[in-house]
Amino acid sequence: MSILEKAIQSAQQAEIAFSKFIKPNDTGKTGGHQAGFHLHKNSWPLYFDTPGEKGSNKDHYVTIRWHDDFETASRFIYYGVGTRNEYRLTRFGKGFPFLADDNVGDLLILVKKSAEFFEGYVLSSDEDIEDFFAALNISSTETNAIIPKQLERSAEDRLLQCFVTYLRSLDVDFPTTIELATSARNCYLTSHDISSNHIKLNPDREILNWLEAEYSLFKTIENDRYSEIIRAPFPTVEDLVKTANTILNRRKSRAGKSLEHHLEEVFRVFKLTFQTQVTTENNKKPDFLFPNIESYNNPSFEENKLILLASKTTCKDRWRQILNEADRIRTKHLFTLQQGISKNQLEEMKKYGVQLVIPKAYMKSFPKEYRNDILTLEGFVKYVNTTQA
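RESULT FIELD:
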């Protein structure tokens, strides 16, 4: 875990924490009083039970662990005698690394773990400082103060942060479709604290959430990769067309494989036996074959335990493409995100042995009299389970 991550985690979990930019006055370079971090008057609850009173000094000794690496026996002190009226943190010992000229402009973070024990962090880079502000939901104008206690970040905030972290980690222009789907799904599961049991309870809902998360991540990457390109005029029409085609082809490629990738994960969660893109008659490659091609090629294997599932985001016209993908399987299952199909087409599908599988939320978009012939994803999984028991 990086120093930034430790600082964020520590501050988020603490009851009280403080941040400030280190200034020349802290390092003693302004010719003022002793070196030591100057603390705003309103920060006294971090280290005292009551504020300091003019006319007297008071102090409080604590141990501070810096960067989870070394400790100092330090002192919070209020100077109230004479003309002074200020709070400081002093006593760090020889060789303390964070009170040099080079530290001016760094962000100091103090986190109270107990009355006698604190954690301290110093962030130097602009990116680390900005990431800390974003994580704690504060701005640079809210430093030199106690960090407001935040409500737990929403799941959507955590999802967005996961997307940003993933985007920064990319060392390629665009990830592969499988990597994109997996990363988006993992971000969603982590940010919403979704377990395998949650998925098993409602696979129809979860697969729609995964698809939405993936689309959001794809747009995030796309906007990042092309924002600069589209701001400038294209030198030629050919360059414009080439860029547009690249964008459109990538969108089509992602959409075409996205559904298949997420269905695979649902089937893995339910521990179904299946294979993808295996070759059947006439060099056809169905999206999913249950349980496997070995069983399909075994003449003695029961045909009613062989299942084909195709996945197509839309299927008004393309459903006919699956009719000859596996001759041994009479009923072809087709998972689709199509919302609503005409009665005539549903009749034709039924005539040719195609049974639709759709997310449960889409069932109301189909004619009521045909709904009993349509499976939800949960219903399909249960059906496959009966053949593999």
